[in-house]
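Need fresh eyes. Consider my entry:
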Amino acid sequence: MYQACKNVDNLFSLIVGEEGHGSNLFTHPAQPYGSETPEQQAQAMMENTEAIENEQRKKLEKELNNIWAENSKAYAGYGTTSPTKEEIAEDEWMKNASMYAPTMSEVDRRQFEDSYEVWQWNEGVERQLDLQIQEEYAERMRNEGKYIVTYSVDLATNKVYDGEGKVSQDGENQLAHYKLMLESYGDKLENVLKNSGDYIIIGEEGLGSNFTVGGNERTPGNMNKDPLNDRITILMRDGDRIIIKEFNRASVDSTNYITNHKNAIGYDGRKHYATLKPGKYRLETFIRMRDGKERMLQDTGMKYLAFRITDHTPTVGVNPAHPERGNPGYAEGILIHANDTTSWNTSEGCQVIYYKDYTEMIKMFGTPVLIKNQQGKIIGTDWDFSKSIGRKGYYYLISQ
């Protein structure tokens, strides 16, 4: 901006003359006045004046074109990219940009105005997104310590911090608890979480919040008979620390209801679906599909990232849904996924986490992105999980 103002000052000097010298319009004519008559002298002066004005006009146009080129470079990309806040000047600064491009063509000016409109739109949307992020953070903090518990382990110091960044004795106790669990399977935490991005998930029966779901207006007798009373925990290596998130609205059991794979349709107090046997299982991430399209996680605007158990999955005793598979039996298609309804726990043998909490798990595997239309306007948000599809991990089901 300083350079643009300096260039304009140079133009002013070109027209009115440098200080102490005055204009060269009459003091330095293009040709000597050698005419013998006043008429001839007047004609010569007029011709010299026109020549000087034409020369100055060319210099002025050249200078203005240079200014336009400099400003085009300086203001390139506004509204078509997502600049950082440090790169975005105030509204008045953008308005002033057009003042320094007086030779802008109609097409260029229209493109500039369109870009400026997009920039204004995106500024407003980003302010709304900032408010949304603040609200989500407040909601997360309300649930912190109740439905979700977060710890961070500093591997350099071995100190454990809680969700507020304070050293936590509870966190140290939980870390020791999980290390003992892994050792019972012959594993060490530092070996299974060697590299950044490595993860394990642990399921524990009966250690949740006893949050209940179930029932609807069609089946009032089913109300609140499907508890999410277990705990599912993820531990992930993140550089020189380990992130631990405990989810206390979870279930490692199948539903208590009879279902049609979409809805709970009855309750008779008996188990109708498989109960996964405790053990260590290999996991793989994937995006859930429906009718050949990527599914979205209910009410979240996020693609539905889930975890597939890739090992053989034996059941506790007979699998009630498939008694022909013997005793003990086995199940197929066991996943770790979201409980994405309040009418039942949506598990016919899968391991589930209440969907409002589940988003905090899958965010650990993705990157937030802005969705823009062809004009560059922000029209929504999403999470990019493309780099996390097929990521391998382990699931330790401790008790049933």
User: Anything to note?
Assistant: Confidence is low (pLDDT under 50) at residues 1-35.
